[in-house]
Amino acid sequence: MYIEHIFYSGAIAILIGMLFFRYAGRDSSWIIILCAWAPDIILPIHDVFHNVAYLVMFTMLVGLLLHKSGVHSFDAFFFAFIGYGVHLFEDALVFKTGYPFLWPLVRGEAGIGVFSGAVSEGNYLADVFGIGNTQVLMAGLVFLLLALLLRTVVEGPTWIRWYMLDEHYSRVITKIDATLAQKNIQN
């Protein structure tokens, strides 16, 4: 499950970012997407690193690193925690019993297993170019599109600025303004 984490964590980042921006006036929810990938990319041994204990340790480490990089400390810890936690939840949705997600709180393997067609004999069936499962990927894509639609309806199309570098956003807005001005001149 690599590509699916982008869709699910992207949707969560969009929704949490919308709420966080409303109450805090800033949006660092891009951290969710990065931290949701970390358990598979940086810490690929599922049995060891996919649990609550490493969620807490990872959150503290990444929170400190992000804070030293200039991110507000609350934002750094909050979004890192959600990102890693979303990853664990996404894996639990796929596997009925797979990993000791709740260790050290609960010993033994746990899971929810909503996507029964994504797992065969305990192994993930990556049938989309070897990087994703069709069933999980389609559900994630729908979730992402709904999150995009909801945030765009609530905040308007300018919310995307929080996920773009300022110079790219300015360039896009300038092109949009030029196009609109040209249409006004023609009318």
Describe the overall structure.
The protein has 187 residues and is mainly alpha-helical. It has one domain. The protein is 64% helix and 2% strand. It has helices spanning 3-24, 30-41, 46-49, 52-68, 73-94, 134-155, 166-186; strands spanning 119-120, 123-124. The chain has a two-stranded antiparallel sheet with strand order 1-2. β1 (119-120) and β2 form a beta hairpin. The longest helix has 22 residues, at 3-24. The protein is globular. It starts with a helix and ends with a helix. The relative contact order is 0.15. The mean pLDDT is 83.
Task: Write a short abstract of this structure.
The chain has one domain (3-155). The chain has seven helices and two strands.
